[in-house]
Amino acid sequence: MKLLFSIIALGLLGCDQQRQQETVQGNWIKGSESDQITTIEKQFRGFDKAMIETGYRYQELYWAGKDKNWEYADYQLDKIKVAIEYGLERRPKRAKSAEHFLKLGLPEMKKVIKSKDTALFNKEFKTMTINCNNCHSMEKVPFFTVKLPINRQSPIHK
Q: Which PROSITE patterns does this entry report, sorted A to Z (predicted)?
């Protein structure tokens, strides 16, 4: 009887491990290795995913500055840079439009955050917003109009 229970338990355990492995590996990525890479690349999509993250972090940066939570502001600024750079890896044709933002705009905001000067932060954040909109115009999506956040979305407060 113990032997029968052991066999049943091992069988059920094996089925569960197979199901977990299928879930972890995901059977939706099919085909050759090249086909699988193409499928994964498609899931990352283009620059739109980078902009979704950037928009979220833009809002977080704004509220961090309002809260004088300078460490959080610096963190969000770094993540904006990373999101844009990764987006540019997927869509290098967007690099020219993002160049000013990455090389001048973000470093200038970095200095302002380090200064911990709220008035300067507010001024530079408005400049950053203008730079966002200029980039959108260069990319022929001027209808993506960025404005200063009005309502806090995040539960993170200082």
A: PROKAR_LIPOPROTEIN
Calpha distance 88→47 (Å, rounded): 7
Give the DSSP letter of residue 46: S
Q: Residue 145 class from Cβ within 10 Å (0-12 exposed, 13-18 middle, 19+ buried)?
A: exposed
The number of domains in the chain is 2
Residues 18, 77 share a domain = no
Spatial neighbors of 148 by CB under 8 A, at least 6 apart, are 62, 125, 126, 129
pTM: 0.78
Q: Are residues 104 and 125 in the same domain?
A: yes
Q: Are residues 7 and 80 in the same domain?
A: no
Q: Which residue has the higher pLDDT, 10 or 93?
A: 93
Q: Give the list of residues 6+ apart from residue 95 with CB closer than 8 angstroms, or none.
A: 88
Task: Report the C-alpha gap between 37 and 7 in whole angstroms.
Answer: 40
* Residue 8 CB coordination number (10 Å): 10
What domain range is 72 assigned to? 45-138
Interval 59-71: pLDDT, tens = 999 999 999 999 9
Whether residue 61 is contained in a domain is answered as yes
